[in-house]
Amino acid sequence: MNSADSSHNSGGRPPQTDFREVFGNELDYPRLGNVTFRRGTLTDNQEALFNEHWPRLGMQLADAPVDIDTWFGRSGHPTIVEIGSGTGTSTAAMAPLEADTNIIAVELYKPGLAKLLGQVVREDIDNIRMIRGDGVEVIYRMFPPESLDGIRVFFPDPWPKARHHKRRIIQSGTLNLFASRLKKGGVLHVATDHADYAEWITELVDAEPSLRFHPWPWPECPQLTDRQVITKFEGKGLDKEHTITEYLWEKI
Ligand SMILES: C[S@@+](CC[C@H](N)C(=O)[O-])C[C@H]1O[C@@H](n2cnc3c(N)ncnc32)[C@H](O)[C@@H]1O
């Protein structure tokens, strides 16, 4: 395993595991390419709030498994990881409706995390925690196999240019990695507003043998699937009259 060095703290290039080598397979994994750890400025208020509450509610990508029970201060609750939570609009809207579930929002973009952190503190939402880092590395390095009840990826960057398709987060290898981290019966939920990305994902729905695809809607899905609000990027897509496509898989 590569070490999760500290370069990503300073806005440098984040650590990138060679998953094919680590897992000894020929599956496809996303390349972050030259995307650096996304910085961005916080307002003075956000900075103060971040400094005060991040040590309790957030952590940085690390090479150690998350002690979920200690972090949430309760044990035996289901845990869902959302990758690319952006500003956390739907994360904060869904969490109170699934108060029994531990929600971990993973994002590269610090101002997005700061916004969610602010909402979590203001609204006293006690079942959300945050990790700053590349979601694929976070899942690989910080969650052991069969430890999660759900993984959500809402409106991932579509990387529309053909030469950038290799950066898309949904690939055969990530489906395999996500499946390995889900418990039996766990759910992977992906949504996109991008027609070409939807075609790409549709081609992959049966790519991972341990994930059973459930066409939308799946009324018996054991988890909340309604985002409650239109997220920032969902709204941008709807403004352009894009169709929203939802994907649900069950770990078997
Ligand atoms: C198009 S936005 C969608 C944000 C949010 N889910 C929404 O619907 O408004 C994609 C988000 O994923 C984040 N992101 C992209 N690649 C990521 C990765 N590998 N790990 C974690 N977050 C990532 C970006 O910083 C961005 O905030």
UniProtKB/TrEMBL annotation:
Pfam families the UniProt entry points to: Methyltransf_4
InterPro entries for this protein: SAM-dependent_MTases_sf, tRNA_(Gua-N-7)_MeTrfase_Trmb, tRNA_methyltr_TrmB_bact
Positions of S-adenosyl-L-methionine binding: E82, E107, D134, D157
Catalytic activity, as annotated: guanosine(46) in tRNA + S-adenosyl-L-methionine = N(7)-methylguanosine(46) in tRNA + S-adenosyl-L-homocysteine
Keyword Methyltransferase on entry: yes
Keyword annotations of the record: Methyltransferase, S-adenosyl-L-methionine, Transferase, tRNA processing
Role according to the record: Catalyzes the formation of N(7)-methylguanine at position 46 (m7G46) in tRNA.
Family: Belongs to the class I-like SAM-binding methyltransferase superfamily. TrmB family.
PANTHER family according to UniProt: 3-DEOXY-D-MANNO-OCTULOSONIC-ACID TRANSFERASE/TRNA GUANINE-N 7 - -METHYLTRANSFERASE, PENTACOTRIPEPTIDE-REPEAT REGION OF PRORP DOMAIN-CONTAINING PROTEIN
Designated name of the protein: tRNA (guanine-N(7)-)-methyltransferase
